[in-house]
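Sorry, can you check?
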Amino acid sequence: MKTSGTASSLINENQNNDRQQRKMADIAQALQASPADVAALRRMAISEGGLLTDEMRCQVWPRLLNVPPNILEQEPETVERDNNKDYNQVLLDVQRSLRRFPPGMPDEQREGLQEELIDIILRVLKRNPQLHYYQGYHDIVVTFLLVVGERLATALVEKLSTHHLRDFMDPTMDNTKHILNYLMPIIERVKPEVHDFMQEAEVGTVFALSWLITWFGHVLADFRHVVRLYDFFLACHPLMPIYFAAVSCTEKRRCWIANVTWPWSITCCHRFLRICPTRPSSAERETCLSSSRHPNWPERLPFATAWRPPRLKTLTWPRRSSGLTRCSTSAGGGNCNSSNSSSRRWQSARRWPGPP
């Protein structure tokens, strides 16, 4: 029996290696096309295993973000740190980011990367004064730094910040709250029993804030899972992280029943929700990614149907350096409204017909 099991494992490993080799060849072919076949690259970034290697990500991520080659070739300018309004907060966050670097990395190398991380963040903010730093932004930037290096990371993060992350980088968190308010309608549509459980437990949506604004980089323990998610998110619509957040809740519904029992409490449920996406297996990860693009997802989620907490008296949001507001929600279901200019940026998202 052991011999049979070993032979089966070897066959599966060989088949997996063959699939990876074919995928690498397909990615290379799409890159060599003139112009590059971005549609094919998106399909391969989304499909099982993603882009497979960091070498491929260095070539494909710029195409997925449509960053012009001349921008990629520019050497990053020196950043002035003195009298920079964001420097102190960025420094504190970067100093607390030790676990985001590979275990066993020499201190000297890690400290050098942390200096580069600070420079990238300050450089992007200086070039784009309309952007406001938020705590958790560094979790996204460090992923790009570790994969593609400082020069490429600067160009990619700047494009990402002015597009996918733009709503997180407003002076207030109004638009971020709007995105979070998509979470419960999605869960209700797909797994009503999970939605009802979360409603009864009064967990709200704040637990998913760090998932959303860091693209799960802050909560996933394995860096391989982080870059796999980034492959997926970069190839999809900017709202895909909230769909994946919903899947992270619904796919763990059996664990809910086993680990969270009556009397339900906000503390107990929040504790479970914080840990549920942290250490997925590769199979669980791919299942969640596949489910995030399931055709049964809601086709559209207009603001009029966005979830409002029915009983929670207040929602208190973490502070950040750019000055947050607190959203007070009455028992009747009042909600914070964004400005007209902020709402206009959402028109395209409201018309989006669903995940690709």
Q: What stands out?
A: The chain has two domains: 87-163, 170-350. The first strand starts at residue 314 and ends at 315. The CA atoms of residues 124 and 158 lie 6 Å apart. Confidence is low (pLDDT under 50) at residues 295-356.
